[in-house]
From TrEMBL, chains A, B:
NCBIfam families: FMN_nitrolo (TIGR03860). Its EC number is 1.-.-.-. Gene3D superfamilies: Luciferase-like domain. GO terms for molecular function: oxidoreductase activity. PANTHER family: ALKANESULFONATE MONOOXYGENASE-RELATED (PTHR30011), C2H2 FINGER DOMAIN TRANSCRIPTION FACTOR (EUROFUNG)-RELATED (PTHR30011:SF16). It comes from the Bacteria. It is an enzyme of class 1 (oxidoreductase). Residues 27-318 form the Luciferase-like domain. This is LLM class flavin-dependent oxidoreductase. CDD domains: Nitrilotriacetate_monoxgenase. Belongs to the NtaA/SnaA/DszA monooxygenase family.
Length: 446, 446
């Protein structure tokens, strides 16, 4: 295909992305611990030729599990179970550079890439919740810049582990009795500030060479990190202008790192309420917003901006003066996004909560299918997106409507594939397969 | 069933357990990185109503990858892919208490137990190779007693994480908007010498309550640990007498910990060469031994006993005087086993190497099906085993012969099930489902 193509990723949240989705009668709230439910979702996304599915993750229990389905199964095991029920679709999981040993993480993703035939992607996070620190013996959560410093070293370690077997190191010849050409297996001998890792990995190089590097940071550190390492970026924007600024900045920074801008796919989140008419779509969204539980929403908001509003009148003005913009707590990108909404729209607390309930700060849009497709195309054609992280308000129905009503329009306009042209996630995203950094190196294990 | 029943576990090693298995024409040497191969093996074991399959593991590359298929995919991801291709069989993976954070390990196994409907088992190891330490930033491998001290604390942490949601903590009621009864979710607030873990886990309690605790240590520390915590034990013995001593010791120690002896299943390894006659079985074994590569075997031996024999005549006497019995290196249980063989049989180096090549020191037996079944029954009836860890010399054929020719004899004698009577690994092993240690506790997250 010569024409530039959209990437579409299905972000799977148990019952859907609207915080009250699990209370909606069309959601699969009762199947959230049933692996076959997730296999079916992946199969539906694959039938639509989506690039990938994605699971978020965090190694701590969320605060507000009373009012929402906020458990977290371990996503790599889940994706392994999905891999063998699908053939083509990419499989992306979040994992933390702050709370997982690089040798262990390298093995988990290498195994997933092997067993899926080259469909693994790693969403690199530094983990933003202080609760996680307490599950891993740290007195307090490491500060933002220190987490990123560690993450940069982590990437270097894990990249070299994935590269430590050259592609042709495996001989596997029973006749001669030679399994591996050990001259093509390399120790990594990493000695750094945060890690000492000798290597090599104990798994041969994977079908993709390396799983795809995905990232979602939006702070200055996060952007610089993404521009340097990420091959796909999940990002949250409420407006075209904000997405354009982010897109231009990332591509510019990527160039400064001597990277080709097309090797960094930028996918903003979109959470669409779709119906035949605008009025019906608005009504559908209202139906979800009426299921919101304020106790839950205020906890969410407190996590985003570090401000406890439980004593305030929900229908009163949002107390803008109480936000200390100098000290972003929690996820930096979400903090900025909330402040932007408040400054732009002067909402009541309830209005703000409803805005955020849609998809935790991602772009929520309601309307008929043509409008959704038009918006997608506008962002795609105007330097705001290479594709989208599709976040259905509820599942599975919210995805099915998008698939049946919006995807055909995108396809008709020549913006989205009708068939897969490759077999790996790198193929779908149009990413090159990296050569091992050790190709030709003579420092080997034997 | 009132009659005491054997447990049978299929220990899966890529091409089989004989070190030259991958060179044997009947092995699946070319499919070792293909997940469908392992799914098929599990399905065959399930068709025979085996209790479980098992993957060993270690977070470092083995020394001798040149001459053997010594890679290691990450076993929990692999078992997740197998779980969804099977319905009943248990799924056991090794994971290290020395090199994995307990919160991460708790999540991996909890996810596996959820997605398999209660079939996960954890083979608890402290990891015995110095190479692993170098992949995890440690200056040297922690000594044996320190690894076990850490392991005991680890078990306490992970048990309480798995128990941190009571069985009925999940309400999941869309109408009331209550997902979880947070009064039944408990922080574990662990503060110890090796770990500080607040908890709770971010996954609800699993179908088995806790995955099954499996262990394989044979040192004094290892036995005490197994007697206290293990619900199934993998162990290596060359003689009935050795297995009886171990069996009696473990059951006695379990009683001393106030545990019921039947809640500790003891499964010695058995690697059978099976043919119609003894002569043919011996010939089959010879065929494997002729495929052995001495370079590989001597490296293996060096790892077991810390002695480099590469300069010695393979057909000369084993230099017993060079072994320092005061300083067991590597795996303590294997060291003892090698020394016992040397003292009992005075082998040449080649003879010793062939003895060990069978299944890394496990019991290798050659003969017609009746002889294999008789031996199994003798061990089972005479206080040496509750079942066996079946280690086919090669795969898949070595398993198929056992299944077709030995299992029916055991079944005919009423020693082994013809159908599963339960759905979980605990059911198969006859283990009780543990109540959460937090049942009724009032210290909760809200």
């Amino acid at each position: 295909m010569s024409k530039r193509q959209l990437s579409l990723n299905l972000f799977i949240y148990p019952g859907g992305h609207h915080e009250a989705a699990w209370r909606y009668q069309g959601s699969a709230a009762d199947r959230i611990l049933d692996v076959s439910y997730y296999q079916e979702l992946a199969q539906r996304a694959e039938a639509q030729k989506f690039d990938a599915i994605f699971f978020a993750d965090g190694p701590a229990l969320a605060d507000n599990v009373r009012y929402a389905q906020r458990f977290r199964f371990e996503p790599i095991t889940w994706l392994a179970a999905i891999a063998v029920a699908t053939k083509r679709i990419g499989l992306i999981a979040t994992a933390s550079t702050t709370y997982t040993e690089p040798y262990n993480l390298a093995r988990l993703f290498a195994s997933l890439d092997h067993l899926s035939g080259g469909r693994a992607g790693w969403n690199i996070v530094t983990t933003s919740t202080a609760q996680a620190a307490q599950n891993f013996g740290l007195p307090e959560h490491p500060p933002h810049h220190e987490r990123y410093e560690r993450a940069r070293e982590y990437i270097d370690v894990i990249t070299r582990l994935w590269d430590s077997w050259e592609d042709d190191a495996v001989v596997n010849d029973p006749a001669s009795g030679i399994f591996a050409d050990t001259g093509k297996i390399h120790p990594i001998d990493h000695v750094g500030k945060h890690f000492r890792v000798r290597g090599p990995l104990n798994i041969s190089r994977t079908p993709q060479g390396r799983p795809v590097y995905v990232q979602a940071g939006s702070s200055d550190d996060g952007r610089a990190f993404a521009a340097r390492y990420a091959e796909a970026i999940f990002t949250a924007h409420q407006t075209l202008a904000s997405a354009q600024e982010f897109y231009a900045d990332i591509k510019r920074q990527a160039r400064a790192f001597d990277r080709s801008p097309d090797q960094v796919r930028i996918l903003p989140g979109i959470s669409p309420f779709i119906a035949s008419t605008q009025a019906e779509a608005d009504l559908l969204q209202d139906e979800f917003n009426e299921l919101i539980q304020p106790e839950y929403s205020l906890t969410q908001l407190r996590q985003m901006i570090g401000l406890d509003l439980s004593g305030f009148d929900l229908d009163g003005p949002f107390p803008r003066h109480l936000i200390d913009t100098g000290s972003a707590r929690g996820v930096a990108s979400r903090f900025k996004l909330v402040v932007d909404i408040v400054d732009r729209e002067q909402p009541t607390i309830r209005q703000l909560v409803q805005r955020l309930a849609g998809a935790r700060g991602h772009w929520v849009i309601a309307g008929p299918p043509e409008k959704i497709a038009d918006n997608i195309q506008t962002w795609f054609d105007n330097g705001a997106a290479d594709g989208f992280n599709v976040m259905p308000p509820w599942l599975p129905g919210g995805f099915d409507i998008f698939a049946e009503q919006v995807v055909p329009i995108l396809r008709k306009r020549g913006l989205f594939r009708g068939e897969y042209s490759g077999t790996t996630l790198r193929d779908h995203f149009g990413l090159s397969r990296p050569q091992s950094v050790f190709s030709g190196s003579i420092k080997a294990i034997a």
